Amino acid sequence: MADKFDPYREALIMETNTIWPDEYANMPAAEKRRVETALHAEPEACAHLEYVRVHTGFCRQITVTAADLERLGASV
User: Fold this and answer.
1) Is residue 2 part of a domain?
2) Would you tell me how many other CB atoms lie within 10 Å of the CB of residue 7?
3) SS3 state of residue 71
4) pLDDT (tens digit, 0 to 9) for every residue of the chain, 76 residues total?
5) Is the residue at 1 inside a domain?
6) Are 35 and 72 in contact (CB under 8 A)?
7) H or E element: which one contains 46?
8) pTM exceeding 0.90
9) Count of domains for the chain
10) C-alpha separations of 36 from 4, 52, 55, 56 in Å
């Protein structure tokens, strides 16, 4: 279940995680790094964002979607 962007939780982010669906397994590693950096730089624009509670705060977890890739102009 996706969460809404939450500025309070954002202030408590200690970790980040990006989930890549299997359909993007063949995407070049450099392109994946670029997309991950862009997604975590603007989490409020992500289609599927979750805040996972960890011992020291929260982990921002983003699941990559086709809409995200299209918005970022990623080559799939």
Assistant:
1) no
2) 7
3) helix
4) 789 999 999 999 999 999 999 999 999 999 999 999 999 999 999 999 999 999 999 999 999 999 999 999 887 6
5) no
6) yes
7) none
8) yes
9) 1
10) 19, 17, 24, 23
